[in-house]
Design brief:
Length: 398
């Protein structure tokens, strides 16, 4: 007797390499001790939230501003939270975005599922540059969609907009970009996005329905070179920004994010109504109440980005010393480094022998690379150096 559907049996057997490596790390830590395992597998922020978050939590609990309540609210979120988010999005996008265009969601992941539920028909396609966040395929597939990865330009992982346009078909419904990018750390330029928007306009006109530009921006504040992050709202009307505060405020476990619909999109009201319905019928109902209250006073705060910037430099030094090639990430907190041998899983296996945990790039749609999350304590980075060096030598030994 089968406990699961055939689809889910297959999904489990090919489950996320990120989680598999994270779980392998748990077993290694039990065997060797936490200080003797160097786990770069999971993008789980290790910094404490900024002081403003603690202050907000204490005020919520004490009822200083209002009676303490975590009951239901409108599916779209608290009015005060939507207003605060609208002001933030308006500033970031350089476009006056009303609160009515904001839907508060259960993290960015919940937001993407809500969006795809509202816009996808079975067989519709979602294009993304590759490598890409591993769950995008599942998020589209949950609602009958199909992810269409398009290889980015190497070695810097910039957008190949010509290739992305060539991949567009009558079934193309959305293009999703993630900048700063997980896993590469790349930040796309305005020129790249302008070319992409022009291609999408041509596809929309040809297809007779909008192709949505979905900008997934949970790493927006983790920008180490102060590179401009272009406004998609200024470039393309049928655009939707997805954000969360898992990284900027270290609130990953609170699961609070948002969808923001471009104010110049002619069907914004209809789209928002669909997002609200999807938020309800998918069972999210509403985003976490406490997280929404926190955002009302903490949106101008952020974790200390200088810590991650320092760790980026430390990690780069470790990789250089080991002879591992990489492009310096401009944002997020990952290196997408080149494996010293074509088989990235073989390199990962050698690293596991050294109690160093990274994720094979094949799990992100590009083999021959590994993802290394440097949101870990300085000592983990420093003490992993010998393990990286030995693993490279073991892989490349004649």
């Amino acid at each position: 007797m089968k406990a699961l559907s055939a689809e889910f049996s297959g999904k489990i057997s090919g489950s996320s390499m990120i989680r598999r490596m994270f779980e392998a790390g748990i077993e290694l830590k039990k065997k060797y001790g936490v200080d003797n395992v160097y786990d770069f597998s999971l993008g789980n922020p290790d910094l404490a939230p900024p002081p403003e978050v603690k202050k907000a939590i204490l005020e919520i609990g004490s009822g200083a501003d209002q009676p303490f309540s975590i009951g239901y609210m409108p599916n779209v979120g608290y009015p005060e939270t939507r207003a605060a988010l609208a002001a933030k999005v308006s500033e970031e996008q350089g476009a006056a975005t009303p609160p009515d265009n904001i839907v508060v969601t259960c993290g960015a992941a919940g937001g993407l599922n809500v969006l795809f539920r509202a816009i996808l028909e079975p067989g519709d396609e979602v294009i993304c540059p590759s490598p890409y966040f591993v769950e995008y395929g599942s998020y589209a597939g949950n609602f009958g969609g199909k992810l269409v990865p398009v290889p980015a330009r190497l070695p810097d992982f910039s957008l190949d907009t010509a290739a992305m346009e060539a991949a567009m078909t009558p079934r193309t419904r959305a293009v999703i970009i993630n900048s700063p990018n997980n896993p590469t750390g790349q930040i796309y330029t305005e020129s790249e996005l302008r070319d992409l928007a022009a291609a999408m306009k041509r596809c929309s006109e040809k297809n007779g329905r909008p192709v949505y530009l979905v900008s997934d921006e949970p790493y927006r504040t983790l920008n180490y070179e102060d590179a401009p992050i272009p406004s998609v709202f200024s470039l393309y009307d049928a655009s939707v920004v997805v954000g969360s505060f898992s990284k900027s405020l270290s609130l990953a476990g609170e699961r609070v994010g948002y969808l923001a619909v471009c104010p110049s999109f002619g069907d914004a009201g209809e789209l928002v109504a669909g997002l609200i319905l999807a938020n309800r019928i998918l069972g999210f109902v509403n985003a976490p109440a406490v997280g929404q209250r926190i955002l009302q006073t903490c949106l101008s705060a952020t974790v200390d980005v200088a810590v991650y910037r320092r760790r980026r430099e430390m990690m780069a030094d470790v990789l250089r010393a080991a002879g591992i090639d990489f492009v310096m990430p401009r944002g997020a907190f990952y290196f997408f480094a080149k494996s010293p041998v074509p088989d990235d899983r073989a390199f990962v296996d050698e690293l596991v022998k050294e109690r160093v945990l990274v994720v094979p790039g094949s799990g992100f749609g590009l083999s021959g690379y590994v993802r290394i999350a440097f949101c870990v304590e300085d000592s983990v980075i420093k003490n992993s150096a010998d393990g990286f060096a030995r693993a490279v030598k073991a892989c490349t030994r004649a």
